[in-house]
Design goal:
6 helices; 0% strand; elongated
């Protein structure tokens, strides 16, 4: 039994070493994507705090909090899907597009970072506090980007906009 465990451990170690050696060029790309995704999760938490500060009576929860469910969803779903896309693009550029000088993994990573950057900007411009720091740039972005404030309520903001409550 000890021999079997030893052989399995050596085999798994060899496979892990091969995978690390094979995909070592993707590690910087994976790291950049993870940083963007985690910062997007943090900016969503900051938005939740602003919503609770601006509309304390309209939100069902008493205070903003960093929910383990939301962060768990980021870790379980968002990060693995994005990392798999980068690795698949790397495999395609290395083994499929061998006659072309393509950088598919860089393009996919760039698209992921652009998607996350837009989400971060949406979180920044949503639910501004009336503290006098609202300049033209942020007002212009607010007209272009999606307002994520209503995601923190169980209703849409349309009924409040009609009554000028917001």
């Amino acid at each position: 039994m000890e021999q079997i465990v030893k052989y399995v451990a050596v085999t798994l170690g060899g496979i892990a070493g091969w995978l690390i050696g094979e995909f070592k060029d993707t590690f910087p790309l994976l790291t950049v994507a993870i940083i963007f995704i985690l910062y997007d999760a943090w900016s969503a938490y900051q938005l939740d705090r602003r919503v609770h500060k601006k509309y304390p009576t309209k939100v069902k929860r008493k205070q903003a909090h960093f929910t383990s469910f939301a962060f768990g969803k980021v870790v379980r779903e968002t990060i693995p899907k994005r990392l798999i896309a980068i690795i698949l693009a790397f495999i395609a550029e290395r083994y499929v597009f061998i006659h072309f000088d393509t950088h598919a993994s860089y393009i996919v990573t760039g698209a992921i970072c652009l998607e996350q950057a837009l989400s971060i900007l949406e979180n920044w411009v949503s639910c501004p506090l009336d503290d006098g720091n609202d300049n033209r740039f942020w007002r212009a972005l607010r007209r272009i980007l999606i307002d994520k404030t209503e995601r923190h309520f169980d209703i849409t903001l349309d009924e409040y906009k009609e009554n000028d409550e917001l």
